[in-house]
Amino acid sequence: MGRTKLFTPGPVPIDEHILQIGAQQPPYNRTQEFSDFTFEILANLQYVFQTSGQVAIFSASGTAAMEATVVNFVDSASKVLIINCGTFGQRWIDLCDVYSISYEEFRLEPGQSLDMDELQMRLKEGRFSTLFATAHETSTGFLSDIERIGKLTRQYKVLYVVDGISSILADQFLMDEWNVDVAVLSSQKALALPPGLSFVAVGERAREKLVGKKCRSLYFDLENYFRNQERGQLPYTPAICLMRQLHERLRNVKEQTLPQIIQQHKDRADFFRDGLKSLPLQMVTVQKSNAMTALSSDKFDALKIVSELDKTYQMTVAPNTGELRHRVFRVAHMGAQTLEDLSSLLSALDECLSNPATSMTN
Q1: Does one domain contain both 211 and 324?
Q2: CATH at 268
Q3: What is the band of 2 on the pLDDT scale with cuts at 50, 70, 90?
Q4: Residues 336, 48: Cα–Cα separation, whole Å
Q5: What are the beta bridge partners of residue 315?
Q6: DSSP letter, residue 129
Q7: Domain limits at 91?
Q8: Please, which residues have CB within 8 angstroms of residue 57's CB and are 6 or more apart in sequence?
Q9: Which of 205, 231, 255 lies at the terminal end of a domain, its last residue?
Q10: Measured between alpha carbons, how far is 243 from 93 in angstroms, rounded to an integer?
């Protein structure tokens, strides 16, 4: 594959010193040294999530972490409400279907804001034990008001589970303060690591629900992870090279501080969006994450724009799927990205949109 500049919401551009760690020989992991190393990772993950709760580390994708929450916290006796604002909200639905979990869908159209009054009415009925939400819907760029939703779930004693995969570290996320009971994250988004690690953070209320509860999975049994992590180990062989990259990246995060890293994402997002003002493109949603900008136009085919940027300019932006395939493309602001990179992309977009080949009618 050629070397292109990534503007995709995972994988994202990775700092060179992090990449070099991944090329090193992995050590044997069943040692006290590795345990001490894991303890430091776990403490720094609590800082990232802003929680005093426990965090489980999986050598698996973000969807695996989502599945782990389903098999550990809900069952056939549960009644779940799912806020579905796009592709990744749909993933909660797909997981509940696989495990025969009873649910009700609160569906939003692309870019549509959540009606908090309607949400409160549904929760007030007392029918739901659990709410699944998505902090940042990566298919449309929509950013949910996780804090306001958390006030309602706590008021009505509903377990609150949040997919924070493409939001945490790019946007403010205060797990404990916002009453989030369970949150998931993966390595290839704003954490700016290669794909392959995911994390489930469990708050005090959720932790109590695990006591004495039988998990329907061997690999995803959270209690097993927490027992092993008490000695600084994972129950199964971890992705050791990724763990070493994670260790270094989390140290960097702690040194820079969360507010500074979030501000960096905001600065890049603001710079790019300001540069769009002269282009015939519209942002899909008003409530936008710092992680990414989703763009559409009635005059241009999104898939053709993606193809032209890749072929002519060696710049990879993200296409979309389903009904948004020809309508929406996405530009991420995560990872080792500079304002100069974004300026170059804006220039390429300007030229690209002058090309009749990208027209919707061509």
Answers
A1: no
A2: 3.90.1150.10
A3: low
A4: 18
A5: 5
A6: S
A7: 16-255
A8: 38, 41, 42, 45, 197, 198, 199, 225, 229, 234, 238, 243
A9: 255
A10: 30
Model-level pTM?
A: 0.96
**Among residues 177, 218, 176, 206, which one has the least CA distance to residue 58?**
218
The three-point CA angle 12-16-19 to 5° equals: 75
Residue 284 shares a structural domain with residue 193: no
In a domain, 362, yes or no: no
Q: Are residues 227 and 353 in the same domain?
A: no
Q: Is 280 buried (19+), middle (13-18) or exposed (0-12) by CB count in 10 A?
A: exposed
Q: Is the dihedral of CA 51, 56, 57, 63 positive or negative?
A: negative
Residue 93 lies in a domain: yes
CA distances from 67 to 81, 147, 269, 308, 355 (A): 16, 23, 31, 36, 43
Over its C-alpha atoms, the chain yields an Rg (Å, rounded) of 21
CA dist., res. 88 & res. 134, Å (int): 7
Q: Which two tokens stand for residue 225?
A: 């992870």
pLDDT in tens, 102-155: 999 999 988 788 999 999 999 999 999 999 999 999 999 999 999 999 999 999
The answer to whether 316 and 6 have CB atoms below 8 angstroms apart is yes
In degrees, rounded to 5, the angle at the alpha carbon of residue 256 between the alpha carbons of residues 252 and 261 is 100
Cite the beta strand spans of the chain per DSSP E.
5-7, 54-58, 79-84, 102-107, 130-134, 136-137, 142-143, 159-163, 182-186, 198-202, 282-283, 292-296, 315-317, 328-332
User: How many domains, in total, are found in the chain?
Assistant: 2
End-to-end alpha-carbon separation of the chain, Å?
29
Residue 341 lies in a domain: yes
